[in-house]
Amino acid sequence: RVKEKWAATRAKHPPTSLALHHFDAKYSVQLGRLWPSVRVALLSERKYGALLNNFSSDAVLANLQAQGCRDFISDSDAEAQSCPEPESEVGADKQEESSDGAMKKSDVDDQQRPPFLLSRNINCAVFPRGDITRFKPARPDMQGLLGYYLMDAASVLPCLALDVQEGHRVLDLCAAPGGKSLALLQTQAVRFLCVNDSSVSRTQRLRKVLRRYVPKEFLTDENIRITSFDGTKWGEIERNTFDRVLVDVPCTTDRHSLTEDDNNIFSKSRTGERRMLPKLQVELLLAGIEAACPGGEIMYSTCTLSQIQNMGVVEQAIHQAQQNHGIHLEVVDLQLVTNMFRKTFHFAPDLHLGVMVVPHLAANFGPIYMCKLKRMT
Length: 377
Ligand code: SAM
Fold this sequence. Notes:
13 helices, globular, 14 strands, Rossmann fold, alpha/beta, binds S-adenosylmethionine, 32% helix, four-stranded antiparallel beta sheet
Protein backbone atom coordinates (compact mmCIF):
# COMPACT_ATOMS: atom_id res chain seq x y z
CA ARG A 1 0.00 0.00 0.00
CA VAL A 2 1.21 3.51 -0.84
CA LYS A 3 1.54 5.76 2.19
CA GLU A 4 -0.60 8.61 1.02
CA LYS A 5 1.26 11.44 2.75
CA TRP A 6 4.51 10.41 1.01
CA ALA A 7 3.11 9.55 -2.39
CA ALA A 8 4.81 12.16 -4.57
CA THR A 9 2.69 11.36 -7.63
CA ARG A 10 -0.71 12.02 -6.06
CA ALA A 11 -2.18 15.24 -7.40
CA LYS A 12 -3.05 17.83 -4.78
CA HIS A 13 -6.41 18.35 -6.43
CA PRO A 14 -7.25 15.15 -8.30
CA PRO A 15 -9.72 15.58 -11.18
CA THR A 16 -12.40 13.66 -9.25
CA SER A 17 -12.26 16.27 -6.44
CA LEU A 18 -12.35 19.11 -8.95
CA ALA A 19 -15.40 17.50 -10.54
CA LEU A 20 -17.17 17.16 -7.19
CA HIS A 21 -16.39 20.78 -6.34
CA HIS A 22 -17.75 21.90 -9.72
CA PHE A 23 -20.92 19.78 -9.43
CA ASP A 24 -21.57 20.97 -5.87
CA ALA A 25 -21.48 24.56 -7.07
CA LYS A 26 -23.63 24.03 -10.19
CA TYR A 27 -26.04 21.25 -9.31
CA SER A 28 -26.95 22.49 -5.83
CA VAL A 29 -28.42 25.50 -7.63
CA GLN A 30 -29.85 23.58 -10.58
CA LEU A 31 -31.36 20.65 -8.67
CA GLY A 32 -31.98 22.37 -5.33
CA ARG A 33 -33.09 19.97 -2.61
CA LEU A 34 -32.71 16.98 -4.96
CA TRP A 35 -28.94 17.44 -5.17
CA PRO A 36 -27.85 15.82 -1.83
CA SER A 37 -29.55 12.51 -2.68
CA VAL A 38 -28.39 12.58 -6.31
CA ARG A 39 -24.86 13.34 -5.07
CA VAL A 40 -24.82 10.32 -2.73
CA ALA A 41 -26.05 8.08 -5.54
CA LEU A 42 -23.47 9.44 -8.00
CA LEU A 43 -20.71 8.65 -5.52
CA SER A 44 -22.01 5.11 -4.95
CA GLU A 45 -21.75 2.02 -7.10
CA ARG A 46 -23.82 2.34 -10.25
CA LYS A 47 -26.37 -0.19 -11.36
CA TYR A 48 -26.28 -1.97 -14.69
CA GLY A 49 -28.89 -3.43 -16.95
CA ALA A 50 -28.39 -6.41 -19.26
CA LEU A 51 -29.40 -5.53 -22.82
CA LEU A 52 -30.55 -8.86 -24.23
CA ASN A 53 -29.00 -9.97 -27.48
CA ASN A 54 -31.76 -11.21 -29.79
CA PHE A 55 -29.11 -12.58 -32.15
CA SER A 56 -28.00 -15.08 -29.50
CA SER A 57 -29.73 -18.45 -29.44
CA ASP A 58 -29.54 -18.93 -25.65
CA ALA A 59 -32.59 -18.48 -23.40
CA VAL A 60 -30.89 -15.67 -21.56
CA LEU A 61 -33.93 -13.82 -20.20
CA ALA A 62 -35.35 -16.93 -18.49
CA ASN A 63 -31.96 -17.46 -16.91
CA LEU A 64 -31.76 -13.89 -15.64
CA GLN A 65 -35.35 -14.03 -14.40
CA ALA A 66 -34.45 -17.12 -12.40
CA GLN A 67 -31.78 -14.96 -10.74
CA GLY A 68 -34.40 -12.36 -9.77
CA CYS A 69 -34.22 -9.92 -12.71
CA ARG A 70 -37.11 -8.45 -14.66
CA ASP A 71 -37.21 -7.05 -18.17
CA PHE A 72 -38.10 -3.46 -17.35
CA ILE A 73 -39.36 -2.82 -20.88
CA SER A 74 -41.94 -5.59 -21.33
CA ASP A 75 -42.83 -5.11 -17.68
CA SER A 76 -43.60 -1.44 -18.24
CA ASP A 77 -47.22 -1.67 -19.44
CA ALA A 78 -48.60 -2.16 -15.98
CA GLU A 79 -46.81 1.02 -14.93
CA ALA A 80 -48.28 3.01 -17.82
CA GLN A 81 -51.73 1.70 -16.89
CA SER A 82 -51.63 3.43 -13.59
CA CYS A 83 -51.07 6.84 -15.15
CA PRO A 84 -53.19 8.69 -17.65
CA GLU A 85 -51.80 8.78 -21.18
CA PRO A 86 -50.86 12.29 -22.19
CA GLU A 87 -53.09 13.75 -24.89
CA SER A 88 -50.23 14.17 -27.34
CA GLU A 89 -49.68 10.42 -27.24
CA VAL A 90 -53.03 9.52 -28.74
CA GLY A 91 -52.77 6.09 -30.21
CA ALA A 92 -49.73 5.07 -28.17
CA ASP A 93 -49.78 1.33 -27.61
CA LYS A 94 -53.25 0.11 -26.80
CA GLN A 95 -53.50 -2.24 -23.86
CA GLU A 96 -55.57 -5.37 -23.72
CA GLU A 97 -56.19 -7.86 -20.98
CA SER A 98 -54.89 -11.37 -21.60
CA SER A 99 -56.47 -14.56 -20.29
CA ASP A 100 -54.21 -14.52 -17.24
CA GLY A 101 -55.38 -11.03 -16.42
CA ALA A 102 -51.99 -9.45 -17.15
CA MET A 103 -51.85 -6.36 -19.32
CA LYS A 104 -50.11 -7.00 -22.65
CA LYS A 105 -49.18 -4.77 -25.59
CA SER A 106 -51.46 -5.49 -28.53
CA ASP A 107 -49.79 -5.80 -31.91
CA VAL A 108 -50.34 -2.61 -33.79
CA ASP A 109 -50.65 -2.94 -37.54
CA ASP A 110 -47.85 -1.00 -39.19
CA GLN A 111 -50.41 0.64 -41.49
CA GLN A 112 -52.13 2.18 -38.49
CA ARG A 113 -49.05 3.16 -36.59
CA PRO A 114 -49.61 6.16 -34.38
CA PRO A 115 -47.17 9.06 -34.62
CA PHE A 116 -45.12 7.99 -31.62
CA LEU A 117 -44.21 4.58 -30.29
CA LEU A 118 -41.24 2.92 -28.71
CA SER A 119 -38.78 0.91 -30.80
CA ARG A 120 -39.72 -2.75 -30.66
CA ASN A 121 -37.88 -5.90 -29.61
CA ILE A 122 -35.50 -4.21 -27.20
CA ASN A 123 -35.33 -5.98 -23.86
CA CYS A 124 -33.24 -5.08 -20.86
CA ALA A 125 -33.07 -7.01 -17.60
CA VAL A 126 -32.50 -5.28 -14.27
CA PHE A 127 -32.40 -6.39 -10.66
CA PRO A 128 -35.26 -4.97 -8.54
CA ARG A 129 -35.12 -1.58 -6.83
CA GLY A 130 -32.71 -1.58 -3.95
CA ASP A 131 -31.10 -4.85 -5.09
CA ILE A 132 -27.46 -4.21 -5.96
CA THR A 133 -26.57 -7.70 -7.17
CA ARG A 134 -23.98 -7.57 -9.94
CA PHE A 135 -24.51 -9.35 -13.24
CA LYS A 136 -22.16 -12.17 -14.13
CA PRO A 137 -20.21 -11.67 -17.35
CA ALA A 138 -22.23 -12.76 -20.40
CA ARG A 139 -21.38 -16.16 -21.87
CA PRO A 140 -21.04 -17.03 -25.56
CA ASP A 141 -23.64 -19.27 -27.20
CA MET A 142 -22.93 -22.05 -29.72
CA GLN A 143 -22.13 -19.47 -32.44
CA GLY A 144 -19.85 -17.58 -30.06
CA LEU A 145 -22.31 -14.66 -29.66
CA LEU A 146 -22.71 -13.15 -26.20
CA GLY A 147 -26.15 -13.28 -24.61
CA TYR A 148 -26.27 -9.78 -23.13
CA TYR A 149 -24.45 -6.47 -23.04
CA LEU A 150 -24.05 -4.69 -19.71
CA MET A 151 -24.82 -0.98 -19.79
CA ASP A 152 -26.57 1.68 -17.75
CA ALA A 153 -30.20 0.61 -18.18
CA ALA A 154 -31.20 4.27 -18.60
CA SER A 155 -28.98 4.41 -21.72
CA VAL A 156 -31.48 2.14 -23.43
CA LEU A 157 -34.22 4.80 -23.14
CA PRO A 158 -32.97 7.08 -25.96
CA CYS A 159 -32.90 4.04 -28.30
CA LEU A 160 -36.39 2.97 -27.23
CA ALA A 161 -37.82 6.46 -27.61
CA LEU A 162 -36.19 6.91 -31.02
CA ASP A 163 -39.10 4.81 -32.32
CA VAL A 164 -37.22 2.92 -35.02
CA GLN A 165 -39.68 1.50 -37.52
CA GLU A 166 -39.43 -1.19 -40.17
CA GLY A 167 -37.20 -0.17 -43.07
CA HIS A 168 -35.64 2.87 -41.42
CA ARG A 169 -32.22 4.23 -42.29
CA VAL A 170 -30.57 5.12 -38.99
CA LEU A 171 -27.45 7.12 -38.16
CA ASP A 172 -25.65 6.78 -34.82
CA LEU A 173 -23.33 9.79 -35.01
CA CYS A 174 -21.20 9.24 -31.86
CA ALA A 175 -21.48 5.51 -31.53
CA ALA A 176 -18.48 4.02 -29.71
CA PRO A 177 -18.17 1.76 -27.79
CA GLY A 178 -21.52 0.72 -29.23
CA GLY A 179 -24.07 -0.05 -26.51
CA LYS A 180 -26.74 2.09 -28.13
CA SER A 181 -25.93 0.86 -31.65
CA LEU A 182 -26.44 -2.65 -30.34
CA ALA A 183 -29.78 -1.64 -28.80
CA LEU A 184 -30.87 -0.14 -32.13
CA LEU A 185 -29.94 -3.37 -33.93
CA GLN A 186 -32.06 -5.37 -31.49
CA THR A 187 -35.16 -3.82 -33.08
CA GLN A 188 -34.38 -5.88 -36.24
CA ALA A 189 -36.25 -3.13 -38.06
CA VAL A 190 -33.31 -1.08 -39.28
CA ARG A 191 -32.78 -1.30 -43.06
CA PHE A 192 -29.41 0.42 -42.89
CA LEU A 193 -27.40 1.47 -39.84
CA CYS A 194 -24.56 3.91 -40.10
CA VAL A 195 -22.34 3.93 -37.01
CA ASN A 196 -19.75 6.64 -36.65
CA ASP A 197 -17.26 7.79 -34.05
CA SER A 198 -14.43 10.25 -34.62
CA SER A 199 -12.07 8.28 -32.37
CA VAL A 200 -10.31 5.57 -34.34
CA SER A 201 -9.40 3.54 -31.25
CA ARG A 202 -12.96 3.69 -29.91
CA THR A 203 -14.27 2.73 -33.35
CA GLN A 204 -12.07 -0.37 -33.08
CA ARG A 205 -13.80 -1.19 -29.78
CA LEU A 206 -17.14 -0.69 -31.47
CA ARG A 207 -16.20 -3.14 -34.26
CA LYS A 208 -15.20 -5.67 -31.62
CA VAL A 209 -18.52 -5.24 -29.79
CA LEU A 210 -20.46 -5.76 -33.02
CA ARG A 211 -18.45 -8.90 -33.81
CA ARG A 212 -19.17 -10.32 -30.32
CA TYR A 213 -22.92 -9.72 -30.56
CA VAL A 214 -24.04 -9.71 -34.19
CA PRO A 215 -23.78 -12.65 -36.63
CA LYS A 216 -21.21 -12.22 -39.42
CA GLU A 217 -23.89 -12.66 -42.09
CA PHE A 218 -25.65 -9.55 -40.75
CA LEU A 219 -22.57 -7.34 -40.72
CA THR A 220 -22.56 -6.71 -44.46
CA ASP A 221 -21.99 -3.40 -46.27
CA GLU A 222 -25.65 -3.49 -47.24
CA ASN A 223 -26.79 -3.46 -43.61
CA ILE A 224 -24.19 -1.50 -41.75
CA ARG A 225 -21.50 1.09 -42.37
CA ILE A 226 -18.82 1.86 -39.78
CA THR A 227 -16.96 5.16 -40.12
CA SER A 228 -14.59 7.37 -38.14
CA PHE A 229 -15.47 10.86 -39.34
CA ASP A 230 -15.69 14.07 -37.39
CA GLY A 231 -19.44 14.06 -36.82
CA THR A 232 -19.65 17.87 -36.90
CA LYS A 233 -18.95 17.66 -40.64
CA TRP A 234 -21.71 15.16 -41.37
CA GLY A 235 -23.98 17.82 -42.86
CA GLU A 236 -21.32 18.37 -45.53
CA ILE A 237 -21.21 14.65 -46.35
CA GLU A 238 -24.77 13.40 -46.29
CA ARG A 239 -27.78 15.68 -45.84
CA ASN A 240 -31.54 14.91 -45.68
CA THR A 241 -30.91 11.16 -45.63
CA PHE A 242 -31.77 9.35 -42.40
CA ASP A 243 -35.18 8.53 -40.89
CA ARG A 244 -33.72 8.42 -37.41
CA VAL A 245 -30.53 9.95 -35.99
CA LEU A 246 -29.03 9.36 -32.58
CA VAL A 247 -26.68 12.09 -31.34
CA ASP A 248 -25.21 10.71 -28.11
CA VAL A 249 -22.61 13.39 -27.57
CA PRO A 250 -19.37 13.52 -25.59
CA CYS A 251 -20.10 15.31 -22.30
CA THR A 252 -18.72 15.70 -18.79
CA THR A 253 -19.79 12.06 -18.11
CA ASP A 254 -20.64 13.05 -14.55
CA ARG A 255 -20.44 9.63 -12.96
CA HIS A 256 -17.08 8.79 -14.52
CA SER A 257 -15.72 12.23 -13.63
CA LEU A 258 -16.50 11.63 -9.95
CA THR A 259 -15.02 8.17 -9.72
CA GLU A 260 -12.04 7.83 -12.13
CA ASP A 261 -9.01 10.09 -12.23
CA ASP A 262 -7.77 8.51 -15.46
CA ASN A 263 -8.98 10.14 -18.64
CA ASN A 264 -10.99 12.64 -16.59
CA ILE A 265 -12.38 15.72 -18.37
CA PHE A 266 -11.88 17.72 -15.14
CA SER A 267 -8.10 17.23 -15.18
CA LYS A 268 -6.31 20.59 -15.49
CA SER A 269 -4.86 19.65 -18.89
CA ARG A 270 -8.37 19.21 -20.32
CA THR A 271 -9.95 22.45 -19.05
CA GLY A 272 -10.04 23.95 -22.55
CA GLU A 273 -11.66 20.83 -23.98
CA ARG A 274 -14.26 20.82 -21.20
CA ARG A 275 -15.18 24.44 -21.77
CA MET A 276 -15.62 23.78 -25.48
CA LEU A 277 -18.01 20.86 -24.92
CA PRO A 278 -21.29 22.80 -25.32
CA LYS A 279 -20.05 24.26 -28.64
CA LEU A 280 -19.05 20.78 -29.89
CA GLN A 281 -22.41 19.38 -28.72
CA VAL A 282 -24.36 22.06 -30.61
CA GLU A 283 -22.30 21.36 -33.76
CA LEU A 284 -22.89 17.62 -33.48
CA LEU A 285 -26.61 18.04 -32.90
CA LEU A 286 -26.86 20.44 -35.85
CA ALA A 287 -25.01 17.94 -38.05
CA GLY A 288 -27.42 15.20 -36.91
CA ILE A 289 -30.37 17.47 -37.72
CA GLU A 290 -29.00 18.11 -41.21
CA ALA A 291 -28.40 14.39 -41.73
CA ALA A 292 -32.05 13.56 -40.96
CA CYS A 293 -34.60 13.74 -43.75
CA PRO A 294 -37.58 16.09 -43.50
CA GLY A 295 -40.08 14.24 -41.30
CA GLY A 296 -37.18 12.37 -39.71
CA GLU A 297 -36.49 12.35 -35.97
CA ILE A 298 -33.35 13.11 -34.02
CA MET A 299 -32.57 12.01 -30.47
CA TYR A 300 -30.07 14.10 -28.51
CA SER A 301 -28.66 12.40 -25.42
CA THR A 302 -25.98 12.89 -22.77
CA CYS A 303 -24.92 11.33 -19.49
CA THR A 304 -24.61 14.60 -17.59
CA LEU A 305 -26.97 16.56 -15.36
CA SER A 306 -25.68 19.86 -16.75
CA GLN A 307 -28.41 22.20 -17.92
CA ILE A 308 -25.96 23.94 -20.27
CA GLN A 309 -25.01 20.67 -21.99
CA ASN A 310 -28.59 19.44 -22.08
CA MET A 311 -31.41 21.94 -22.59
CA GLY A 312 -29.00 24.76 -23.39
CA VAL A 313 -27.55 22.83 -26.32
CA VAL A 314 -30.97 21.78 -27.63
CA GLU A 315 -32.26 25.37 -27.51
CA GLN A 316 -29.24 26.67 -29.40
CA ALA A 317 -29.41 23.92 -32.01
CA ILE A 318 -33.13 24.55 -32.66
CA HIS A 319 -32.41 28.25 -33.07
CA GLN A 320 -29.39 27.78 -35.34
CA ALA A 321 -31.11 25.14 -37.47
CA GLN A 322 -33.87 27.66 -38.22
CA GLN A 323 -31.60 30.70 -38.65
CA ASN A 324 -28.71 29.16 -40.57
CA HIS A 325 -30.30 26.25 -42.41
CA GLY A 326 -34.01 27.11 -42.65
CA ILE A 327 -34.85 23.84 -40.85
CA HIS A 328 -37.92 23.99 -38.63
CA LEU A 329 -37.99 21.51 -35.75
CA GLU A 330 -40.59 20.44 -33.25
CA VAL A 331 -39.83 18.97 -29.84
CA VAL A 332 -41.44 15.53 -29.39
CA ASP A 333 -43.16 15.04 -26.04
CA LEU A 334 -41.49 12.17 -24.15
CA GLN A 335 -43.93 12.16 -21.23
CA LEU A 336 -44.97 8.63 -22.22
CA VAL A 337 -41.45 7.42 -21.44
CA THR A 338 -41.52 8.86 -17.94
CA ASN A 339 -44.99 7.42 -17.35
CA MET A 340 -44.03 3.97 -18.56
CA PHE A 341 -40.76 3.60 -16.74
CA ARG A 342 -41.23 5.51 -13.50
CA LYS A 343 -41.16 2.26 -11.51
CA THR A 344 -37.65 1.61 -12.75
CA PHE A 345 -36.06 5.07 -12.95
CA HIS A 346 -36.17 8.37 -11.12
CA PHE A 347 -36.91 11.21 -13.51
CA ALA A 348 -36.09 14.87 -12.87
CA PRO A 349 -39.30 16.83 -12.36
CA ASP A 350 -40.45 19.75 -14.49
CA LEU A 351 -37.94 19.92 -17.32
CA HIS A 352 -39.29 22.23 -19.99
CA LEU A 353 -37.33 20.40 -22.70
CA GLY A 354 -36.64 16.66 -22.77
CA VAL A 355 -36.49 14.20 -19.89
CA MET A 356 -33.71 13.17 -17.52
CA VAL A 357 -33.06 10.09 -15.41
CA VAL A 358 -31.42 11.14 -12.15
CA PRO A 359 -29.40 8.72 -10.01
CA HIS A 360 -31.05 7.46 -6.83
CA LEU A 361 -29.62 5.01 -4.28
CA ALA A 362 -32.52 2.59 -4.76
CA ALA A 363 -32.27 2.76 -8.58
CA ASN A 364 -28.77 3.92 -9.28
CA PHE A 365 -29.03 4.47 -13.04
CA GLY A 366 -28.19 7.59 -15.01
CA PRO A 367 -27.74 10.44 -15.30
CA ILE A 368 -29.20 10.25 -18.79
CA TYR A 369 -30.74 13.25 -20.50
CA MET A 370 -32.64 12.95 -23.76
CA CYS A 371 -34.60 15.24 -26.02
CA LYS A 372 -36.26 14.23 -29.27
CA LEU A 373 -36.71 16.57 -32.21
CA LYS A 374 -38.74 16.12 -35.38
CA ARG A 375 -37.73 17.79 -38.62
CA MET A 376 -40.76 19.58 -40.00
CA THR A 377 -38.93 20.92 -43.05
N1 SAM B 1 -23.21 6.10 -27.99
C1 SAM B 1 -22.10 5.45 -27.35
C2 SAM B 1 -22.58 4.19 -26.69
O1 SAM B 1 -23.76 4.07 -26.37
O2 SAM B 1 -21.77 3.28 -26.48
C3 SAM B 1 -21.40 6.36 -26.37
C4 SAM B 1 -20.91 7.63 -27.03
S1 SAM B 1 -19.91 8.62 -25.99
C5 SAM B 1 -21.06 9.34 -24.95
C6 SAM B 1 -19.49 9.93 -27.03
C7 SAM B 1 -18.61 9.52 -28.20
O3 SAM B 1 -18.47 10.67 -29.05
C8 SAM B 1 -17.19 9.11 -27.85
O4 SAM B 1 -16.99 7.78 -28.24
C9 SAM B 1 -16.29 10.05 -28.65
O5 SAM B 1 -15.18 9.40 -29.23
C10 SAM B 1 -17.24 10.53 -29.72
N2 SAM B 1 -16.93 11.84 -30.33
C11 SAM B 1 -16.32 12.90 -29.77
N3 SAM B 1 -16.23 13.91 -30.65
C12 SAM B 1 -16.80 13.48 -31.80
C13 SAM B 1 -16.99 14.05 -33.08
N4 SAM B 1 -16.58 15.30 -33.37
N5 SAM B 1 -17.59 13.29 -34.03
C14 SAM B 1 -18.01 12.03 -33.75
N6 SAM B 1 -17.83 11.44 -32.57
C15 SAM B 1 -17.24 12.15 -31.60
